[in-house]
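cron nightly-structures :: item 1 of 1
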Amino acid sequence: MISDKIRPQHLERKAILYVRQSSAHQVLHNRESSTLQYAMRDRLTTLGWSEIEVIDDDLGRSAAGRVQRAGFERMVAQVCLGKVGAVAAREVSRFARNSRDWQQLIEMCRVVDTVLVDQETVYAPRHGNDRLLLGLKGSLNEYELDLLRQHSLAARYKKARRGELVVGAPVGFVKAGDRYEKDPDRRVQEAISLVFDKVLELGSARQALLWFLEHNLDLPVKGKDGETAWRCANYATIHRMIENPIYGGTYAYGKTAVAAGYDGAGVKVKIRRKARSDWLALMPNAHEGYVSWDKAEAIRKMVSSNVPTSRHHGAPKHGDALLAGLLRCRRCGRKLTLRYSGAKHHIPRYSCTRGWMDNGEPRCIAFGGLRVDDAIEGALLTVVGPGAIAAAVAVEKEAGQQRDQVREALRRDLEAARYATDRALRQYDAADPANRLVTGELEARWNKALARVAEVQAKIAAHDAAAVPSAVNPASFATLAVDLKSVWTDPTTDARLKKRIVRTVILEVIADIDTDAAEIVLLIHWVGGVHTEIRLPRRQRGQRTSTSADVIAAVRQLVLIANDDLIAGILNRNGLVTGYGNRCTRERVTSLRSHHGIAVFKPAADGIEPWLNLNNAARLLQVAPKTLRVAAEAGGVEALHPLPDGPWIFSRAVPSTAPARAITERARQNPRHPAGSHPDQQSLFSSMT
């Protein structure tokens, strides 16, 4: 039956049949829907149109408005030109399922007097009732699509809350129905386990990356086709493993959200990460992981805290400052900044300058870091000392069981390369030798696999050649644990390791300066909840690097009998150094005397020295040097002894004292031990004492 809404002016123009399906899956599998849509051509013929154009450019494209439809745009363009008398579709929802495209089509058809045709009726947009009906159908079509989407998402979310929605498996896992299972490839399993072990051992993802790059070890990644490939390690690969809860045996869903925005280039969709509390599902122990959930969380938090913020200390750096990132100002609550000074840039100084740098506020506090670090170091060693023996025993046990992780990884690579070689050989042997188009390619693959085997074997040989057997006896760990301070202060001890130990037991240190008492006040917040306050005298400029008072006192006494060159040798023999840690030289001793106003040693013009060394004093008393030294050590004779491995100093007036005369008399009465050497006896060595 021909509708009365179709006029001769409509039939004079052509009709367009619009065919569309929403997805490629529907195009391939919903073949009946396509047949019914193309059958609308017969309905248009029945209605009186002889010229019919079919537009099916948009097969597999949704009409929700998120993708561009070239076929729909071409149809609207022809309608605007007035060349179309009718546009047809089996259902009007095929035209559009969003208000923008739908209302645009209706308005254009109203302007140029084009009718719309579906399987039920004919609509004339110039008629008010039809326009109202079309508007209602467009709204219903849009709502229907939204309702279907909501139902689909609700079902998807419900399945996710049960932990049964498995969309895609990351590297190291495969889909097994509604759950994850570990990849059966043992090479993949051990490589991922090695990533977590190295991050936990080295303290940061970047240090683990550098370790993998140093040893030229590859990591598994998922290719675009879903297959596992091996590539050079990079930071993103390691960081994704640490952040993904699936490696800790936890099912997680709803970690990201889509946020649409508009800029000059058009609408852009951004994916942002949601807070963990907003995730749709987080179910620990849902499947077998590569590490336990607690260990995975500890590693994740450790890596996250490596970013220096107001709440995190940041990753330990190479600098010698022990409290970098741990000090907080008691006055303003900001973290103290660190800078190094000195000729070698090794003298740390902590200062609260963040308020001044950011907002121009007055500076709060500042103090040198050497004395503060020493105080915290002493408190730390006191705390961890009792557990050092137990830790040494654990290290000794672990040292005997530790494997060469690099060689194990290379051995797995060699095993995989040999399998690839055998597989290429079998494919080559199975091919027809006469078919060079096939055998040529298979031969090239075989040669490539053989080259890979040779490459891995060369890596193993280089690793074995470079490996140096450990000269440390595991039993010596217990000995080192007793003297923990020697291990801590050893120059070869890594500063980053010491900082990691500090951050393990110390949560934060609150610092302030007591101006009245001229003291630095440190409040240590230990991890266990205990608080310790330490007060240190605030040093003046240059005080820390000044020479020790004991050295100065020794020099004041040594100048009585020795020149600067001889004093430098005595100080070095006793292991004494300058304030900067340098060995003593004649020039440094001279500078020290000049700075402290110590007179230089000058021999007496008449040869009668007011102060004598041990040999000269013994010669004056006519006793053996050993006899006089024993008496001086016992306190029987007054003498000066500035250093343990140094000379004895006697005043020339000592021989005239009663104790000295008594020693001389007692020595002469002992015939078995002569009082002194024969006057004519000469010594082969010049004495320094």
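cron nightly-structures :: done
The mean pLDDT is 84.
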